[in-house]
Amino acid sequence: MKSRKLWAGLSVIMLVFTVVFGLILTSCDEPIAEDDILGDWYKNLSDSKPSFTFVEGSKVTVGSETFTYASAGGSNYEFKTQSGGTRGRASLKLTPPDNKELTVGIGGPIPNGKYYKQGYGGSTGDTVEAPVASPAGGIYTETQTVTLTCKTTGVKIYYTTNGSFATPDSDEYSTPITISADTTLMAVAVKSGAFSSDLVENYTITSGTTKTVTTNTNAGDGSLRDALDKADDGDKIIFNAPMTIDLTACLVIRKSVIIEGKGVVLQRNNAGWTDNNGSLLQVNENKTVNISGIHFKEGKEIKFGYGGAIYNVGTLSLESCIFSGNNAVFGGAIFSSSQSISTTLKGCTFYNNSATSSGGAIYVNGGSLYLTGNIFYQNTAPEWKVVDYGSAAKKYTRGYNVVDVADGPGKTQCGWEFHEKDKLLSTISGISGAPFNTTTFVPQAALKNFITTPLDGFPTKDFNGADRSSGVPGAVNAAN
Fold first, then answer.
1. Model-level pTM?
2. Is the peptide bond before 96 cis (omega within 30 degrees of 0)?
3. CATH assignment of 210-447, given 3.30.1490, 2.60.120, 2.60.98, 2.160.20?
4. Bridge pairing between strands 65-73 and 59-62
5. Burial state string for 136-167 with b = 16 or more CB within 10 A and e = fewer than 16
6. 274 compared with 182, residue with greater pLDDT
């Protein structure tokens, strides 16, 4: 685990450069300017790779389109178009500059505007929300029937099930998709030439067994550590009763498993855990893990610095979990590394987590981060953001997140762009002080009906395993 974390730290300085190109369409209000296409370094790109050619000088041709690139200062390069026409997504990797490798995704054109890194500032085209899959990706023991929806009206949804980016040349969604084997589902919504961000969901279909944790000891027969060590891919781990487990070393998840806690607390035993090395839990690479109903408490990872509660290298989904008092250099509660495919958080509560550098609650260094119906309160980081991310990461809010600091890129802000349904605590009528009891984590009554409509894929169970009977965000139902 130590060597993997060192590798993750070194990977942050890898230089890979992404340029995003726009599509000039007659339906758009204005053409894109050459100087609007800028590049910035980031870590990696998994897009598929059609043909390209380097030509004289600092030029490259992709299909019938020719681009020039030149240094824009430091490690940055600036791309300029030579002619009009369709543009795709592209990145130029210079390691060093004389060794050039171009990778071009075929995810389709995107609207006009000024694009940089993986996001954009301003657009002259329509804004299209990403599709939503229900049920969401995860581990399942039977065939799943998946529906795709989009909050933007009048869109067409295109999808793939082979791990490639969806384009208008892909299958158009019209009826639910049957998934009976391990599948990566990707989809994009399109309206009037405007493209949404990509939906990426990973499904694991398996026939696992159920293992029961019977003791709250750190190790030994019947312990959580023992169940994880003996687990096979697809197994489900449950507990015979709510319990508090004092850990003296990190729990390592080496298989794709489901863990249903229903009120279990995992906490650091400072007397037995004698150094600052080790998150409470680590998800290994290429593993898909679903966790619900667990309170991750007072984890600490200072030696290597990544994720006080969870260090994630795989595909991680967390539902109705609580994170409190965790601390690390990056990602006080959660750090997802560059190898991670995705991190999904639904109905979780983050309280009093801290980072000595960046990402008081979460730092996502790669893959995608999905946020739905979570509460963030008093999470701190002196250098950068409550939720921070590396330039290779993509972040999506599905709405109904509640936070005590404003959205935006500033050092003390939440670190994501608000969905229309996300809220600051100060904007919710009837809220004063903490939005929940900081001991029991039961939300204030004013949050009881915050989620006004059923949400696809939102947890139906709260932290204690009880049915959610109201529209409350966070881990614990207001009815409890």
1. 0.68
2. yes
3. 2.160.20
4. antiparallel
5. bbbbbeeebebebebbbeebebbbbbeebbbb
6. 182
